[in-house]
Design brief:
The complex is a heterodimer.
Chain A lengths: L2 E5 L5 E5 L12 E10 L2 E5 L6 E4 L19 E8 L7 E3 L11 E2 L5 E4 L2 H8 L4 H9 L2 E5 L4 E6 L2 H13 L5 H13 L1
Parallel strand pairs in A: 5-7
Antiparallel strand pairs in A: 1-2, 3-4, 3-6, 4-5, 6-7, 6-8, 9-11, 10-11
Chain B lengths: L2 E5 L2 E10 L7 E7 L2 E12 L11 E7 L7 H17 L8 E11 L4 H16 L7 E8 L5 E3 L3 H6 L2 E8 L5 E8 L3 H31 L2
Parallel strand pairs in B: 5-6
Antiparallel strand pairs in B: 1-2, 2-3, 3-4, 4-6, 7-8, 7-9, 9-10
Helix pairs in contact in B: 1-2
Classes of the chains: A alpha+beta, B alpha+beta.
Chain lengths: 189, 219
């Protein structure tokens, strides 16, 4: 259930804007997964769906049988689904169709991972998102957004990271004016 | 938001609901009918235990916790009724080998508890965004000893009644999903109660729509 939206124009699309928390894997979605187990040649990743996803060790850029990627249990991986339907276990890769990693792979050390609703993720991923533009004027930071509701943030200090995390979590409920006020107070401090 | 309804000769108590109030479950709702209130939390579609998973559809589990004491036989029978109603509307074939858990906590009981549980369950399903083929609502009717029908009875009215009938009514053409009766009544009386419940269902579905609209207008 949600709001029915319409985009007029060539082709014109109707879609339902919903606010859900549970993620269901969809082919082509970029998500953040947490490595839970290494089973032979395959890593098991928790992506927040009903089943763990599998990721082959060869699905990284420049990986061969001799040159294995250095992935430990508990690492964060940013990848996309190649197989995701209701009947099969979801499978992920960290390379795109041409073999390049294009930003996917193991997410570095430090930083903070947290979960938000899927509606906020879609808002943040919309082109020219105001929230991210306003936040980037506050502090410089690195941001990885997964379609499964997970966001990873890393700023220079722990305090800055936590401030950004709190603002992003609160964005779900704040209106644009409240957000601008909160950011103005923070940049004034 | 409280709504006072007058449905011809049958009145429903004022009811209100709140969606999305719990942070852990995927969907949550609390539903109040007069003084009866139930809190529902829904988790799913999540990983199912191998012993419980079904190969072609989602496995639904309902847990009803009374306000005081441990769950007993009455709670188990209500859980089965709720489970059968929810299974009739949830499109489980879209999520095979998963588990959907619905946990209901009775916050206060002042009559019509089963229909309050049904309404809270439907609102939690809406909040979680699970695929459904229809909405459903619960309506309780009490048959007085003199034959008059009372909708949404209080605990006192339930005790004095000759029979208590609870219906779960679906939103597509007001079809009946589940019926349970306590006491004895004739077939004609049951048909009359059913007709009154179907009329009341229309008002309850309109209330669902208004609650969801309010929730989405906040974002």
């Amino acid at each position: 259930c949600g709001l029915l939206r319409h985009r007029p124009g060539a082709g014109g699309a109707y879609w339902v804007d919903s606010q859900q928390k549970r993620y269901v894997p969809v082919k082509g979605d970029h998500v953040i997964g947490i490595v839970t187990a290494k089973a032979g040649d395959v890593f098991r990743l928790d992506v927040g769906g009903s089943e763990p996803a599998s990721l082959s060790y060869l699905a990284f850029e420049g990986a061969t049988k001799r040159n294995r990627p250095n992935v430990q249990v508990g690492d964060l991986i940013y990848g996309q689904f190649v197989v995701a339907n209701k009947d099969m276990e979801p499978e992920m890769v960290c390379i795109d169709s041409s073999g390049k990693s294009s930003g996917m792979g193991i997410i570095g050390q430090d930083g903070f991972l947290f979960k938000v609703s899927l509606g906020l993720i879609r808002k943040l991923l919309a082109p020219k998102c105001e929230i991210i533009q306003e936040l980037s004027q506050l502090y410089p930071f690195e941001l990885v957004i997964g379609m499964n509701g997970r966001i990873w943030v890393k700023a220079k200090t722990v305090q800055q990271t936590l401030i950004i995390v709190n603002i992003l979590e609160a964005c779900e409920f704040m209106t644009a004016e409240q957000r601008k006020q909160a950011l103005a107070k923070l940049s004034g401090n | 938001m409280a709504v006072e309804l007058d449905n011809g000769q049958c009145r429903l108590r004022p009811f209100s609901c709140e969606l999305g109030l719990l942070s852990r479950p995927d969907g949550s709702a609390t539903f109040l009918q007069g003084d009866t209130s139930v809190l529902a939390g829904l988790y799913g579609p999540a990983e199912a235990k191998v012993s419980k998973e079904l190969p072609d559809r989602a496995a639904l589990e309902v847990l009803l916790r009374p306000k005081v004491g441990l769950p007993g036989v009455l709670e188990r029978s209500r859980e089965q009724l709720l489970r059968q109603t929810c299974e009739a509307v949830i499109l489980g074939v879209l999520h095979p080998r998963t588990a959907i858990s619905l946990v209901l906590q009775v916050l206060s009981d002042a009559g019509s508890l089963l229909s309050c549980c049904l309404n809270a369950a439907c609102m939690a399903l809406l909040d979680a965004g699970l695929p459904l083929n229809a909405l459903f609502c619960g309506v309780t009717c009490a048959l007085q000893p003199d034959g008059t029908i009372l909708l949404d009875p209080t605990a006192r009215q339930e005790q004095e009644a000759r029979a208590i009938l609870t219906f779960a009514i679906a939103s597509n053409e007001r079809k009946v999903l589940m019926t349970t009766t306590k006491g004895s009544c004739s077939v004609e009386e049951m048909q009359q109660c059913l007709a009154a419940a179907q009329r009341a269902a229309t008002t309850i579905f309109q209330f669902y729509r208004d609650s969801v609209r309010r929730r989405y207008s906040k974002s």
